[in-house]
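lol ok so funny story. i was supposed to be doing the assay writeup but got distracted and ended up predicting the structure for this chain instead. priorities right. anyway since i did it might as well share w the group, maybe its usefull for someone
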Amino acid sequence: TDIDLYDKKSLSEFIGGYFDADGSVRDRKNGNIQIILTSNSKDLLEGVKYRLLKFGIESSIYLEKRRTGYSGGNENKYVLYIMTDFRIIWNKICKIGKILQNLLKY
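and the output, tada:
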């Protein structure tokens, strides 16, 4: 299946499912919400970033070195960040998963 042929509804469901599986949300003290997606694959996150732009959502990708519990080693992860008002973003691209619905209650 070629994801570039997806209509907006199908694309939003795909992106929403990916965030439900591998994403997280942080409530920042300044009132903004930080939406985060991590991957070992920079290419995968570049693809998500490109597709988010189709919804008018800008994001940034960074390489982060993380300590692992295995022999004190380090592991490199790519992280896609979206810094904005969470409700605007999620209403633009996808259904709200159970975890994210609970976050909005507070």
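The chain is about 40% helix and 30% strand. Residues 8-22 form the longest helix (15 residues).
back to the writeup now i swear
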